[in-house]
Write a structure and sequence with these properties.
alpha/beta; seven-stranded parallel sheet; 7 strands
Length: 278
């Protein structure tokens, strides 16, 4: 795992993982991981290599999924892969058909696939697809997947784990309208349906992650020198939620971050108002 700076060590304290509890909890279970070919999803897969269970990995890059499967073939875990772009209806329907044909059903869904974009609204005036693309994967695909597998999770008294972002809990910020709106939409959806799912025996967990150093953030130059959690650390947090089944995880400093985000938003609005009056 990447060595943290002093600031990162304070922001992201170590996560203790009880491997025995994890193995006991997942023994014989089937776990679906979306966006499994890189970043958090890939690290999560490798950290589950020694469980006596079944991983179903899906992502757009089929060759990367097969590489991961080959690397894990001598481990305890059984791995199945399904190449699919979840924004493509035919590929999504193929994945859903595959899931419903699993002999022992489905126990855990890790909803990890996502797309981020940072762009000024003025640069998006002729790019409506900036919004349809983010909503397609961050909201609509997630909803369609869950609607289909809820009966499977109900039968096995399973768990849905949503990999979200602290942005969904912060004041809206400029340049992230497409991303923040799409992640917030699914976050509200999960919070809305979770009481019904809980009543049916399905646990729901939302992981509100800070910036994570994955390939998804590389196009944003400003992120290169910012404090960021490692994908290995993020994977540990997700694994811990599989046996604790806590409703949510969020960084210890998020409450302070929420106040700061409101202040910065107010400062931004005030500065722009002054400029417009000059």
């Amino acid at each position: 795992m990447k060595n943290y700076s002093l600031l990162e060590s304070c922001l992201f304290p170590p996560t203790y993982l009880n491997t025995k509890k994890l193995k006991d909890q997942l023994a014989g279970k089937s776990v679906l991981i979306t966006g499994a070919s890189s970043g958090i999803g890939e690290q999560l897969t490798y950290q589950l290599a020694n469980i006596n269970g079944h991983l179903i990995l899906t992502a757009r890059r089929g060759e990367k999924l097969l590489k991961i499967k080959n690397e894990l073939e001598k481990k305890a875990v059984k791995v199945s892969t399904f190449q699919a772009d979840l924004r493509n209806q035919d590929e999504m329907e193929g994945l859903l058909k595959f899931l419903h044909q699993l002999p022992n059903g489905l126990d855990i869904v890790v909803n990890n696939a996502g797309h981020s974009i940072k762009r000024s609204i003025y640069e998006s005036l002729n790019r409506y697809h900036d919004f349809t693309r983010t909503m397609s994967i961050n909201y609509f695909a997630s909803v369609q997947l869950l609607l289909s597998v809820i009966p499977l999770l109900k039968k096995n008294q399973g768990q849905m784990i949503n990999i979200s972002t602290i942005n969904a809990l912060l004041a809206p910020v400029p340049y992230f309208a497409a991303y923040q709106a799409s992640k917030s939409a699914f976050d509200v959806w999960v919070r809305s349906v979770s009481p019904e799912l809980k009543a049916a025996g399905i646990a729901t967990t939302t992981i509100y992650l800070p910036l994570v150093r994955t390939p998804m953030i590389q196009p944003t130059i400003a992120y290169q020198n910012m404090p960021a959690m490692s994908p290995e650390h993020a994977a540990k947090i997700i694994l811990k939620s599989m046996y604790t089944k806590k409703k949510k995880y969020q960084p210890w400093w998020l409450l302070f971050g929420q106040f700061v985000s409101v202040f910065l938003r107010s400062f931004w609005d005030f500065s722009n108002k002054r400029k417009s009056e000059e």
